[in-house]
Amino acid sequence: MGITDDFGFGTQIRKSPFFDSTVKWGAKGFSVYNHMYIPRDFGDPEENFWNLVTKAILCDVAVERQVEISGKDAQEFVQLLTPRDLSKLSVGQCKYILITNAEGGIINDPVLLRLEENRYWISLADSDVLLWAQGVAVNSGLNVNIFEPDASPLQLQGPNSGKIMEALFGASIADLRYYWLRKINLDGIPLIVSRTGWSSELGYEIFLCDNTKGSELWEKIMNVGASFDLKPGHTSSIRRIEGGMLSYHADMDIHTNPFELGLDRLVELDTNLHFIGKAALKNIKRNGIKRKQVGIEISGLPLKGPNTRFWSLEKNGKIVGKVTSAVYSPRLKRNIALAMVDLEHTTMSTALEVITPESNLRAKVVEKPFFDPKKTITKG
Questions:
Q1: Model confidence over 303-335: pLDDT tens digits?
Q2: Do the strands 351-355 and 334-342 form a parallel or antiparallel pair, or are they unpaired?
Q3: Within 13 Å, how many C-alpha atoms sit on residue 120's CB side?
């Protein structure tokens, strides 16, 4: 019996092609995301953070399942799913998009990859977009094929990631631009590599296109990366919140619209584009929003870890919002958080009170992102 054969809650939650390797390399705890296990604990989360921002980490993010959309009407169908204008999306390019429902609520905030003229991948956050897309297709009248391909991404992130990529793939990989992709074969392992990631650091995503080679790929990257101080790791809540990156189900859900998140740039209402939710989003923009996401700084001792439930925000004893993601940043040496707050209380430096299970804490509205707001690190 293998070391991971008896782990789990049944076959309904899938294990990634890298699962055995992550356990071998020290994964101690897992969460569930898109019906699949994701490593969330390799020991000290602060050590994981410092490894990410000073060295490099390799993360199993196969939970970012892909939805492939192909066929002669693929371009029109993909545009139907998102309010972002895709008319200038080139083959080999990626874009961060929103998928909205008829009411303008956000169903997912994936990265879209255009692999070929009529072939796309939607690289998902945590929701069942495969079912949504297949349902939309039924009465769309468009000729498309929609399915989950054999594709499982790893994230190689951190300042040393570029050097590791060059050691793996040669010097030409340095030419891969931010939010572009390339098909590569590594010693018989079929891959798609993109200059993307969920870390706010310089990084790459390496999509394995043959799930039988998960352990082989993991070991190959770790072995090459050893010379560059590569560590196994997991996505960092600390760095995510520092960078103002959003987590679906935490910082947004189906009841959140793009304008509340300040993502107006991802919504194109003034063209002839046809997409689901356009009429609703026009009404929301016309009438204005009643709440919006802000950054807040929370006083008191360092938080022991990320919040595991929403914390109410009060002003003069009245609930005016909620903290969605909070953590202590060892680099900034303060508690930072993302919060959804009633519009009238979102002015910079507005004083608020955070209601936690242990105590009530003073807080104030501050600018976000909290670190590297122009994303100079990510873009390289």
A1: 999 999 999 999 999 999 999 999 999 999 999
A2: unpaired
A3: 30
Single-letter residue type at 63: V
Using the structure block, give the residue that is written with the tokens 């594709």.
151
Q: From CA 232, how far away is CA 341, in angstroms rounded?
A: 36
Distance CA 346, CA 343 (A): 5
Enumerate domains of the chain plus CATH numbers. Answer: 19-65+150-240 (3.30.1360.120), 66-147 (3.30.70.1400), 290-380 (2.40.30.110)
Q: How many degrees, rounded to 5, is the angle at CA 282 between CA 70 and CA 134? A: 25
Q: Cα(238)–Cα(347) distance, rounded to whole angstroms?
A: 24
| DSSP single-letter state for residue 122 | E
Per-residue confidence (pLDDT) for residue 4, from 0 to 100? 56
Q: Token pair of 298, please? A: 């929370």
What parts of the chain have a pLDDT lower than 50? 1-3
What are the two backbone dihedrals, phi and then psi, of residue 292, each rounded to the nearest 5 degrees?
-155, 160
Q: How far is CA 322 from CA 250, 314, 326, 362, in A?
A: 11, 8, 11, 14
End-to-end CA distance of the chain: 45
pTM (global) more than 0.85: yes
- Residue whose C-alpha is closest to residue 111's, from 274, 236, 293, 266: 266
- Give residue-wise pLDDT tens across range 80-98: 999 999 999 999 999 999 9
Give residue-wise pLDDT tens across range 104-122. 999 999 999 999 999 999 9
What is the DSSP pairing of strand 230-233 with strand 56-60? parallel
β strands within 2-51, DSSP E: 29-33, 36-41
**Could you give phi then psi for residue 175, rounded to 5 degrees?**
-80, -10
Q: Are 214 and 242 in contact (CB under 8 A)?
A: no
Residue 10: predicted pLDDT: 86
**What integer pLDDT is reported at residue 6 of this predicted model?**
67
What's the mean per-residue pLDDT of the chain? 96
Q: 116, 268 in Cβ contact below 8 A?
A: no
Paired tokens of 242: 């520092």
